[in-house]
Every structure is written in structure tokens, then in C-alpha cells.
Specification:
The complex is a heterotrimer of chains A (388), B (324) and C (333). Chain B has 324 residues and is of the alpha/beta class. Chain B has ten helices and twelve strands. In chain B, a hairpin with a 2-residue loop joins strand 9 (225-230) and strand 10. The longest helix of chain B is centred in the middle third of the chain and has 18 residues, at 188-205. Classes of the chains: A alpha/beta (388), B alpha/beta (324), C mainly alpha (333).
Chain lengths: 388, 324, 333
């Protein structure tokens, strides 16, 4: 017994040594890669022709094409977004659904080019944005140009309305600032007028009063309204809403969702909605994208995905949420947990949690294929139907 | 005592508001303003409400983790609020608590076995020789790997941490467990696992739960009886089937209709409540809900409605039903 | 950020789980600390300084107060007369000697070996650092702990006391105490203890404030509520939960405090109210720079002690910074 444990200890020690060495190697390689990307990012004068591109479909506002965003950590490379393609048609809402850590937030940050550097880098792929003056590829667009696009043309609404507002300035001042930043030519009175108009647009009754309030004086729902007003203040064409209602109560959530729908109609923008709440998705979205471990597992119109879910993960998600009025004795639960992001398996990422496994599932990672006109699934269960 | 394990009567918790240099008390935040309910042995009482309505305070106060401002809590024929510190410590194992945030509720500097076993040792729940095997068996019951006993919390995911929390509570062989939003911080697929675990444990050991949550669908799934709280008061209380089939209070109705349904074909007639919850430091006169109520009448603004039984153990506090 | 994400979702496959090494939070801190190059540099500096000050004197035959004389080019010391009498005519003090083989850093104006005095001065400076920080911590932790744990009136009283101590200007107090000591003829060797005592007493307020703040925020943490719900005895709650969680912050301010105490001691000694002559301390060795001739001509007399102070304080600050980043990775950036 003791001999065996000694042996085991020896092996363990060797393993640890190896791990340490590997870690050093990884961090060395990481540094090299990161340096390369950072250098690319920091270039000052970039010829516009380098990032100009053409849309595949001019009716889309955003086309994310085979996006890869990795985090180069000392533990290894985390492939947060691993080949994701999403199209957002003009005037539509696309919802990105998934659990925490599936890469949905990183996808949205990639679109804004706000991925936390230096470890996080967009490695591959294109994000084509249908700009008024001609389409651009956001991946190649330099930071200086991105600053015009951010806020001005693409706005973002965050989950936590308290931390996204600066506590030491008044609401009015903060919205004024955003407008001023993007429209330097406007007069101060006009800016204030527009700010108050914006506040009224998001359903704040006492807009003049709120203008002089500080963020801490407002409730969570009010703050989220202010955030929305702020992001809308520059007439964006495209809004990214990252879990806009997760921190709010249900009754307030209902108000905000109502508001978002209303506003979308008014200003005719497209929304990329990121959430883990399937109820919110069903209510808001025209198209649904389900992500799992950095990859898209199912994609289609909201009707198709909710009424006719194909991927076992989507089915599990829908089944595991208790619904009011539907009494079940036992909730369906997806067994296990998300695989370790550093050492992803080389077969279907969901296989270890899936109860519909086939022999084929040990093989290649399934590709995203059409199973009907507006429905795509990445699962071997539908291989025979696919390929049409 | 009867079939009730816990009887809460007129529970009140006021937080003083202090102002000025000498910290004079200028008012009170009435976080919990006189609520009463009973929990039957082996059953689950669900407490629903939005943030700031005082539901967490109810849980903490009835466990006497905060001193109450009035009312009584009878547990096993003992008035919890009248116990001495020593007596209180002696009955602590019987009433346990599970928290919302699985990250801040585990001490980061202790191995899992120690976190779970600390109370076991304090109260001599099992003989010393069986201590380690007992902890391992508890861990197994909660779906944890027993050999993880010497690991530290930072190695576990949110769902696993919540399992550790549950293990810590049930290791003391409690009778009542207060679950304070145990699944709100978890992912959907993990939520279902934890809810199922709680239900399984209840079946096996006959625990009684006070299940506090803002999520009506979760409460419906797990509870036998449900109370709806608004600004420190229970506005409605009924057995689950009764409440979900026949909600009476306008607030309950609004809560129901606010839940997004994961079905794009359903387009509901949503009751959207205007405005926010008023501050509990300065609650509206009369019925506290009248500022947001769609059926508000003159009487609602001045007279607080009575909390009455409308049959089937269905209690409501609303003037709409005064004539019934 | 990303690294943390990895840690949280790190689920090893079960079959290897038994063999996996258990990583304690302490080891994690260690790993992060060792990755910080500046902190390692700090540790190296400090170790060198300690060895130099505490072991250095063992390797030299000169004493702290040994005065060197010279007659006709032959050098002898007050310890070892070599058959010569210092009182003899023609004997000169070998002061302000240039660096040589016998005196690597030369001698000061009273003819004492600078390198040796540097070692003894280091002992005093480090000792004062340790004793004063220890005193500050002891008083501060007890007062802050009481204030934080009991709260209410006690808290209020202690915190007002802290406010008062914050208002006391250290330098004038030191000046007054120094002249009192002179007036009452306090023996030189006691002065240094009184100095430490006063520095300790004047400095606990910051520690107390930090400990109280920590305990107040810890008490709100859910795991502390859990220990109460479990029914743990208050003494155990303090010993097993509160103190270990305040420890990291204490270690950090202790290391940082060491640096500032050494600096303070140096400036008092420089002003002549700190460590009294003939005891060596880095501060009173730098003091010689007030002589313009020494400042201009004899770099070897005043530069080494100044450099030692700089290095030591830098070392403590590097280590303190490294520890803080290691304990709380979110603080970085």
C-alpha cells in the first residue's frame, strides 16, 4: 500500500512539474500572440480601404461571420467564442441565449471591440457592419474609427444600471456629455432640450426633475430607463442589450421590455438581445440563437426554436424552467456542468450531458446545418435530414 | 402542538432611521409590518415579492439573526424571541438557512468538510469517530463528490457551492430550513438541479421549508402554500392551487401577468404596473398598493384593507372584496 | 478576469480527481506572489538587508563604537591599542578616512568604521520597525476589533479616540518628549525604548480604523450570518472566521508600515530627536550631511546609510504591494 502511494506521489510530482513547465510555455506563447495582436490594434494610420467591405446581404445591419474570440490565460487558451456566425436583419430583434460562460457576452463585446485586452483577442472572423457610408469590417477597423461607431451608431445597454452610471454627476449632465461627444457642433441649450426629450421618450414622466437628479436617487427601473435614454441619445442604428432586465424585478422587467419594443418601433433600430431568460426571448425576439460553450447549437426564428426545438440542449433549457400554470412533479434538469473551457473535448461539447447520444457523437464536432428553411441545428441526431 | 412546525404571528421588524450629529431616531423603515403565517410539518411555504418588500428580512428575523420589533414566532412550542442566548444557540441546529449568493456564503479560507462540519462538531450531532464519514455521507446526499471534502470553495462552480450550502444546513439535522432565494443566482439548467435536490431531501427527511423567492414559477413548483408580500405586508395567502387558479389581489394578478412566458405564440394581455415600489420608510396611506393599483378606489387611499379569509384558506387584504 | 473564470468552472474529470492536488487559498496567494517580479526583488533586498545587519557584525573584528587612531601612518583602534596610547601626543583620530582595504567605506568624522556602523545601524532601524509596527498592530487590532464586533456606544467611543489620535501631530510631540528626556536626564540607552513606545502609541489609529472597517464589512457577509445560524460560539466566530479574514489586510499594512516607520525613525534621528549618539542608526548617520564639507567631499560617509534606507523602504513597499495584489487579484489594474 505504502509503496503504491509513494509511486503515486512520484507520478503526481512529475505531473506537477510537467504542468508547471507547460504553464510557463503557455504564458510565453501567449505573450507572443498578444503582442502581435496589440501591435495590430495600435496602428495609427490605417487606410480605410483596409477595413471597407461589402455586405453579403444588404438587408442585414450586422453580419458576424465565423467569429473567434479567445482569451489567452496562463491556464491555457479559453475559446470563448469559437466560430459564431449571426446575421441581424434591419429592424429585427435577434436574441442570443445561453448560460453564463457560454460566450454570449463576449460575442457582443467583440461587436463593440470592447473585449478585455490584453488577454482577450479577436483571433479570426469578420463582423460586417452596414454603415451608412458603406459597410465596414469591425474586426479590422482601428480603435480611432471605432470610437465614432460606438455609442453613435451602435449603442449598448448593460445589465447593471447602477455601475454603468457615474455616481458623482447628474443624470442630465451624463446624457448631455454623450450627446456632446458625438455631436460637437450642437449648442448647449439644444443638447439639454434633446436630453429631456430622450428622457420623455423612455417614459420618464418628470423628465425636467430627473434631469437634475443623481443616479443614487433613482430606483433600479428608473436607472435602466436612463441608461436606455443615454444609449438612444445618438440615434443608433443598432442596439446591443446585454441582459437589460436581469437585475430588475418582474413588474419592472415588464415595463422595460414594453419600452424596448415600443422604442424599436419608434426609431426603427435593430436589437441584439442577450439574455438567459427564455421568457424574455420569446416575448422580444424575431430570431433566436442558442449558444453553448462558445458555439452556436441552434439558430432559427423564434417560432421554430420555441415550438419545435431540435437540439437536446435547447429542449433541456426549455423543459428545465418551471412555467406558471404547468404543474410537473419533477423538473427536468440537464445533468452535469459545462465542460472546462481550457481543455474542450474534441467531440460534441454537449455529449457528456446529453441523454440522446448516438455512437456518432464520439466522432467529429457536429456542424451547424439547415434542417428547414429557417432553422439550423448542430447535432448528429439530424445528420440524415441535413445536407439538403 | 398541532401540525404546524412554525407559527409566525404579527411579526414586525422596523429599522430606525437616524439623522443628525447625535444620531437621533427620526423615523422607521417598516421592513416587515405585522405578518402572520404558519408552516405545516413537512410542507413548503413560499414567500413571493419583489426586491425591497421585506421578504429576506422575514427570513432573518424569524431565525432571530436580527432582533424583531414585535410579534412572536413559535417553534416547537417555544417562543423563539423569548429564549436566552444559550437556549437560542441550542435550538439553532433545528432552524437552518440557505442563502442566495453561493459566493459570499462560504468562507473562502476553509475546506469544504470544515464548512459543513463546523456546526456538527459544535453541537455534537454525531460521535467523534463517525464525524468524517458522516460529513461524506451528507456530501453524497447533496450530490457532491465525497472526496472533495478537503477542497476549498474557490474550486467549485456556483451550482456546486449552492450544494455545499445545502449540505451545511442539512448536516445539522434541522426541522425547518429557510431558503432565501436559493436559485436566483444560478443558471437555468443548474436551477432545476437544485430545486430537484431540495424536493428530494424534503421527501427523504421531512424538512419544512420557508421558500423565499421573487420567481413565481419556481415558487409554484416547490410550495404547498404561498404568501405574496408587498411593502412589508402579506397581501394574499392561499394554498398553491387556489392562489394560482384564482388570484384575487390586483398585485398578485399583476405579478402573474408580468412573467414572460417562453412561448412566442402566447401574446398576453399584460397588466403593466406603473411606477416603482414606494419607499418603505414612507409608505402610502391606506392600502400600501393604491399608488400602483388599477382598481384603486377612494377608500383605498385612506383605510388600510383588512386581511380576511375568503374560504379555502384564501386570505386577501383588498377592498375590492369587502362586500363578499 | 479571464483567469478567474477558468478557476470557477474548473471541473476535473472524476477519475483523476482523487490524484489532483488540493490547492489551498494560501497556495494560490503564494503562486500569485511568486509571479510578481518586483515583489521577489523586494524579498531579495530585505533578506540581504537582514543578513547584512544581523549576521554582518559577526564577520568583522571592529565594534560599533571602535574609534580608530593613527600615528605616523600606523593605525590602531580603541579596542586594540597595539601598544600605543591614544593620549600620546602626535596621535590623531583617523577621521574621514577615504575607503581603503581596512575600512571599505572609510571612517566617519569621529574615526569609526562606516561599514560596521552601517550594520549596527541596520539592526536598530529594523528593530525599531518591528517593535513599533508590532505595537501598532497589537493596540490597533484590539481596539478596532472591539469597536467593530460590539458596535454601538463602544464603537463610537473608540472611533472618536481614533479621531483624536489622528489629530496629534507626531513631530512636535517627539520634540517635546525629547526635551523632557533631556531635562530629566533619562539615560541614553532608555531613550530608544521610549522612542519606540511613543511611535507605537501614536500610530495605532490607522490600524484600528482598518480592522474595524474590515470587521464591519465581514459581519455583513453571508458566511458570517451562516456561522450565527449554525449557532457557533461567539469566541469561535471571532477566532476562526473574523481574524483569518482580516489577516491578509493586516499583513499588507504591516509590511507597508515597516517602511514608513523606518523612514520616520530616520527623519527623527536626522533631526537629533531619535536614536541618540553614539548608538548607530541609519538616520543619525545621514545626519552628518549637515556639515557642508562632508556633503561636498565625503560621499562615502553619508551616501551609504541613505542608500540603505532607500533600499529597505523600497523593499518593504515592493513586498507589501506584491502581497496586496496576491491576496486580492481584483485590486490589480
Amino acid at each position: 500500500m505504502s509503496g503504491m502511494t509513494a509511486e503515486m506521489k512520484k507520478i503526481k510530482k512529475a505531473e506537477q512539474k510537467e504542468a508547471k513547465l507547460r504553464m510557463k510555455q503557455i504564458s510565453k506563447e501567449n505573450n507572443k500572440i498578444i503582442k502581435k495582436f496589440e501591435k495590430e490594434k495600435k496602428r495609427k494610420k490605417v487606410d480605410p480601404s483596409e477595413y471597407q467591405t461589402t455586405m453579403e446581404n444588404p438587408d442585414n445591419i450586422i453580419e458576424i461571420d465565423n467569429l473567434h474570440t479567445y482569451f489567452f490565460t496562463d491556464m491555457g487558451t479559453v475559446k470563448s467564442v469559437n466560430g459564431v456566425s449571426i446575421e441581424v436583419p434591419k429592424g429585427k430583434t435577434v436574441a442570443l441565449v445561453g448560460e453564463s460562460g457560454c460566450g454570449k457576452s463576449v460575442t457582443s463585446l467583440s461587436v463593440m471591440k470592447l473585449v478585455q485586452g490584453p488577454t482577450g483577442q479577436i483571433v479570426d472572423g469578420a463582423i460586417r457592419y452596414n454603415r451608412k457610408g458603406g459597410a465596414v469590417d469591425i474586426v479590422k477597423t482601428p480603435i480611432s474609427e471605432m470610437q465614432h461607431i460606438r455609442g453613435n451608431e451602435i449603442a449598448m445597454i448593460f445589465q447593471e444600471p447602477m455601475t454603468s452610471l457615474n455616481p458623482i454627476f447628474t443624470i442630465g449632465y451624463q446624457i448631455d456629455e454623450t450627446i456632446k461627444l458625438h455631436r460637437p457642433d450642437m449648442k448647449d441649450e439644444d443638447i439639454k432640450k434633446q436630453t429631456i426629450e430622450m428622457l420623455k421618450l423612455v417614459g420618464i414622466a418628470r423628465a425636467e426633475g430627473i434631469y437634475d437628479c443623481y443616479p443614487h436617487e433613482l430606483s433600479g427601473g428608473m436607472r435602466q430607463r436612463v441608461m436606455i435614454a443615454m444609449s438612444l441619445s445618438c440615434d443608433p442604428q443598432f442596439i446591443i442589450a446585454d441582459e437589460p432586465t436581469t437585475a430588475l424585478d418582474v413588474t419592472i422587467q415588464a415595463q422595460i421590455l414594453d419600452l424596448l419594443r415600443d422604442i424599436k418601433q419608434k426609431i426603427d433600430a435593430s436589437i441584439l438581445l442577450i439574455t438567459h431568460d427564455l421568457g424574455v426571448v420569446a416575448e422580444m425576439a424575431d430570431y433566436v440563437v442558442v449558444m453553448y460553450a462558445g458555439k452556436i447549437v441552434e439558430q432559427g426564428t423564434a417560432h421554430e426554436v420555441f415550438l419545435n426545438p431540435k437540439h437536446p440542449y435547447t429542449m433541456g433549457l426549455i423543459k428545465s424552467k418551471p412555467a406558471v400554470g404547468k404543474v410537473v412533479d419533477r423538473l427536468y434538469s440537464i445533468p452535469g456542468a459545462v465542460p472546462n473551457p481550457v481543455s474542450m473535448p474534441n467531440y460534441c461539447f454537449f455529449k457528456d450531458r446529453c441523454d440522446k447520444c448516438l455512437a456518432k457523437c464520439n466522432g467529429d464536432i457536429p456542424e451547424l446545418r439547415y434542417i428547414s428553411e429557417d432553422h439550423k441545428v448542430a447535432c448528429h441526431l439530424y445528420d440524415s435530414k441535413g445536407g439538403k | 402542538m398541532s401540525e404546524n412546525i412554525l407559527e409566525v404571528k404579527e411579526l414586525k421588524k422596523y429599522f430606525p432611521i437616524k439623522a443628525g450629529v447625535i444620531q437621533r431616531v427620526v423615523g422607521h423603515v417598516k421592513a416587515v409590518d405585522g405578518i402572520s403565517f404558519n408552516i405545516k410539518k413537512g410542507s413548503t411555504f413560499g414567500l413571493v415579492g419583489e426586491s425591497g418588500c421585506g421578504k429576506t428580512t422575514v427570513g432573518r428575523t424569524l431565525l432571530r439573526l436580527q432582533e424583531s420589533s414585535g410579534g412572536s414566532v413559535m417553534f416547537d412550542d417555544k417562543d423563539v424571541f423569548k429564549l436566552s442566548n444559550k437556549q437560542l444557540r441550542a435550538i439553532r441546529p433545528d432552524m437552518q438557512l440557505i442563502f442566495q449568493d453561493p459566493y459570499s456564503s462560504l468562507s473562502p479560507r476553509m475546506p469544504v468538510g470544515e464548512i459543513i462540519g463546523e456546526g456538527v462538531r459544535e453541537h455534537n450531532i454525531v460521535p467523534k469517530e463517525e464525524y468524517r464519514s458522516y460529513i461524506m455521507s451528507i456530501m453524497e446526499k447533496c450530490g457532491l463528490q465525497p472526496h472533495h471534502i478537503d477542497r476549498y470553495p474557490h474550486e467549485f462552480s456556483g451550482g456546486q457551492r449552492q450544494r455545499i450550502c445545502i449540505a451545511r444546513a442539512i448536516a445539522l439535522k434541522p426541522k425547518v430550513i429557510v431558503c432565501d432565494e436559493p436559485v436566483s443566482a444560478l443558471d437555468v439548467s443548474i436551477q432545476a438541479q437544485i430545486i430537484n435536490l431540495l424536493k428530494d431531501l424534503q421527501e427523504e427527511f421531512g424538512y419544512s421549508y420557508l421558500f423565499i423567492s421573487h420567481d413565481l414559477s419556481v415558487v409554484e413548483h416547490i410550495s404547498d402554500e404561498v404568501g405574496v408580500m408587498y411593502l412589508g405586508n402579506l397581501v394574499e395567502k392561499a394554498p398553491k392551487e387556489e392562489l394560482f387558479k384564482n388570484p384575487k389581489h390586483p398585485y398578485t394578478k399583476a405579478l402573474f401577468s408580468a412573467i414572460p412566458v417562453p412561448d412566442p405564440t402566447v401574446k398576453m394581455n399584460r397588466i403593466i404596473l406603473e411606477g416603482d415600489i414606494p419607499s418603505p420608510a414612507n409608505p402610502p396611506s391606506g392600502c400600501k398598493f393604491h399608488t400602483r393599483c388599477q382598481h384603486c378606489m377612494e377608500i383605498c387611499k385612506t383605510v388600510a384593507p383588512e386581511y380576511r379569509d375568503y374560504g379555502n384558506e384564501h386570505f386577501v387584504a383588498c377592498h375590492l372584496y369587502d362586500n363578499e | 478576469m479571464a483567469e478567474e473564470k477558468v478557476l470557477q468552472t474548473n471541473n476535473q474529470p472524476e477519475e483523476v480527481a482523487n490524484l489532483e492536488k488540493i490547492v489551498t487559498p494560501g497556495q494560490l496567494v503564494m503562486k500569485r506572489f511568486l509571479r510578481n517580479k518586483l515583489a521577489i526583488a523586494g524579498v531579495v533586498i530585505l533578506v540581504c538587508m537582514f543578513l547584512f545587519s544581523f549576521l554582518g557584525p559577526l564577520f568583522t573584528s571592529y565594534g560599533e563604537y571602535t574609534i580608530f587612531f593613527v600615528k605616523d601612518g600606523v593605525e590602531f583602534s580603541s579596542d586594540d591599542h597595539k601598544g600605543m596610547d591614544p593620549q600620546e601626543s602626535g596621535v590623531k583620530i583617523n577621521g574621514k578616512a577615504k575607503p581603503s582595504k581596512a575600512h571599505l567605506l572609510g571612517t566617519d568624522k569621529d574615526g569609526r568604521d562606516i561599514l560596521v556602523r552601517l550594520m549596527y545601524g541596520g539592526r536598530i532601524s529594523l528593530l525599531i520597525g518591528f517593535v513599533v509596527v508590532g505595537l501598532q498592530l497589537a493596540v490597533g487590532v484590539i481596539m478596532g476589533g472591539i469597536a467593530g464586533y460590539y458596535g454601538g456606544v463602544i464603537d463610537n467611543l473608540i472611533m472618536r479616540l481614533v479621531d483624536i489620535f489622528y489629530c496629534i501631530p507626531t513631530l512636535p510631540v517627539m520634540l517635546i518628549v525629547s526635551s523632557i528626556m533631556v531635562a530629566y536626564g533619562v539615560p541614553q540607552e532608555y531613550k530608544i525604548y521610549i522612542l519606540m513606545l511613543i511611535m507605537g502609541i501614536l500610530g495605532w489609529a490607522g490600524v484600528a480604523r482598518l480592522v474595524r472597517g474590515q470587521i464591519l464589512s465581514l459581519r455583513e457577509q453571508e458566511f458570517m450570518v451562516a456561522t450565527e445560524a449554525i449557532g457557533l460560539h461567539p469566541a469561535k466566530r471571532i477566532m476562526k472566521h473574523l481574524i483569518p479574514n482580516v489577516m491578509p489586510q493586516l499583513i499588507v499594512i504591516a509590511t507597508m508600515g515597516m517602511g514608513s516607520v523606518i523612514l520616520a525613525e530616520a527623519s527623527y534621528s536626522y533631526l537629533g530627536i531619535g536614536v541618540p549618539f553614539p548608538l548607530a542608526s541609519w538616520g543619525n548617520m545621514v545626519n552628518t550631511v549637515t556639515d557642508p564639507i562632508i556633503m561636498r567631499e565625503y560621499l562615502n560617509i553619508w551616501f551609504p546609510p541613505g542608500f540603505c534606507i532607500l533600499l529597505t523602504v523600497l523593499g518593504f513597499n515592493f513586498v507589501g504591494d506584491g502581497l496586496r495584489d496576491a491576496f486580492d487579484p481584483k485590486m490589480k489594474r
